[in-house]
Design a protein that fits this description.
Elements: H1 6-11, E1 13-17, H2 31-34, H3 39-48, H4 56-66, E2 70-76, H5 98-108, E3 112-118, H6 145-161, E4 167-171, H7 178-181, H8 183-193, E5 198-200, E6 230-234, H9 251-262, E7 266-272, H10 282-298, E8 318-323, E9 328-333, E10 340-344, E11 350-355, E12 360-361, E13 363-365, E14 382-386, E15 398-403
Parallel strand pairs: 1-2, 1-7, 2-3, 3-4, 4-5, 6-7
Antiparallel strand pairs: 8-9, 9-15, 10-14, 11-12, 11-15, 13-14
Helix pairs in contact: 4-5, 4-10, 6-8, 9-10
Bound molecules: alpha-D-glucopyranose (GLC).
Alpha-D-glucopyranose binds near residues 30 and 212.
Length: about 400
């Protein structure tokens, strides 16, 4: 049987896009809930969300240039406002089907397609006032079955009307609401309409895990101990949607993030929040360009890579990624050491080493029996790399270690 994860594991890097009426608030995605707004109060955003500069080609080109291989867009977030032309509601952007515009633009750049669809809906009258609902202080008798029907109808629309969907993200199930959705039926529908689709955030019925704003130290594992497929979702500045006040992560921090995910067998889904007018802001574009510049030289150490075999423990300040097919190990040097670096477990195992960015040889020494261990003689089983005194100009240099057959 075809491995439905093959493209996902190869890709390692995708773009998450949080965009909707809340982008007008320029504060946070959950503002309707945090500020306990009524739908009438929130109408100022849904009425004024009118992306006159909508340019999904800009997003798609920026994602591609950064080295991303797929994207996931919020077609409906918890506020219930739809970016797609659903026939089951008027609570949507009416001038055009924005989801279609984004999907077309990313497909044209050769990226795979992912759709985020919120299970909760703070607008629908049959969605209960749960603990996170903006009207949580107002008690309510609620028959949620009409909402379940609405939910299933919309999921069917998304999975029918837009061609091949590679990933679907069902966000927002909590233990107190899990009974509402009928998760087995959603899974069966998704598999029927889109064979091979990858499903996330449907607790107990999903295909992979999506840790949020944290990177599992040792990766994630299935019950039988085999490595699990996973995707960490991360933000550029502490919020998902476009916000005005922010403290940005830096390009080296973002590169490290990508390496940390890959080195533990996971993907990085890096979020951007386009402005309500429909463009990525200048700083987001610059960060993506910075990532793209690193990827241009180093993407071999990311695509189709995973963590190193356990027999090669990572030296301090470094991370390994590993390409099994090429039998090649990549040493990502997060902080540049003095002239040399010792690689435990790699003595006698390496055929040739080079700096990945310039393809220039990196010399190494092996243990010499009979000599004392010290600056000239690494310990038995350890390989000692001789590094240039100063780090190459690109952040996070990578040494490519071709292992012996
Ligand atoms: C969390 C947030 C939600 C966001 C999601 C992305 O669940 O509550 O707003 O869309 O993370 O992973």
């Amino acid at each position: 049987m075809e491995d439905k994860f093959a493209w996902f594991d190869e890709a390692r890097f995708g773009m998450f896009i949080h965009w909707g009426a809340y982008s007008c608030g320029a504060r946070y995605t959950w503002l309707k809930s945090h500020e306990k707004m009524t739908t009438e109060q929130y109408n100022k955003y849904t009425d004024h969300f009118d992306p006159d500069l909508f340019d999904p080609q800009q997003w798609a080109k920026a994602a591609k240039a950064a080295g991303m291989k797929y994207f996931v867009l919020t077609s409906k977030h918890h506020d219930g406002f739809c970016l797609f032309d659903s026939k089951y509601t008027d609570y949507k952007y009416k001038k055009q089907d924005l989801l279609r515009g984004v999907i077309d633009a990313f497909r044209a750049e050769g990226l795979r397609v992912g759709v985020y669809y919120s299970l909760p809906d703070w607008h629908h009258p049959n969605y209960p006032h749960d603990a996170r609902h903006p009207q949580r202080d107002i008690p309510q008798e609620c028959d949620y079955l009409p909402y379940r029907e609405y939910l299933h109808n919309q999921i069917r629309e998304i999975l029918t009307n837009y061609g091949k969907i590679d990933i679907v993200w069902f966000d927002g199930s909590y233990p107190d609401t899990a009974h509402i959705w009928d998760m087995p039926a959603i899974r069966a529908m998704a598999q029927e309409l889109q064979p091979g689709i990858l499903i996330s955030r449907l607790p107990g019925y999903d295909d992979f895990k999506t840790p949020e704003q944290n990177i599992p130290q040792q990766g994630l594992f299935n019950d039988d101990g085999t490595p699990a497929h996973w995707e960490g979702c991360q933000v550029l500045h502490g919020e998902w949607c476009y916000i005005r006040e922010k403290k940005w992560k830096t390009v080296p921090e973002l590169i490290q993030m990508l390496i940390r995910h890959t080195s533990r067998g996971g993907n990085l889904l890096l979020n951007v929040g386009p402005t309500s007018r429909g463009l990525l802001d200048k700083h987001t574009v610059e960060l993506l360009e910075g990532l793209g510049e690193w990827m241009k030289w180093n993407s071999k150490a990311i695509y189709n890579c995973t963590g190193a075999p356990a027999e090669f423990p990572e030296p301090e300040g470094c991370r390994y990624t590993y390409n099994k097919e090429r039998n090649t190990l990549y040493l990502h040097i997060l902080s540049w050491p003095d002239r040399r670096i010792d690689l435990p477990g790699l003595g006698e195992k390496v055929e040739y080493a080079q700096l990945l960015c310039d393809g220039g040889e990196i010399g190494f020494t092996e243990h010499m029996p009979g000599n004392v261990n010290g600056p000239r003689n690494p310990a038995k089983g350890t390989l000692r790399l001789a590094l240039p005194v100063t780090s190459p100009e690109l952040p996070i240099p990578v040494v490519e270690l071709f292992l012996k057959k």
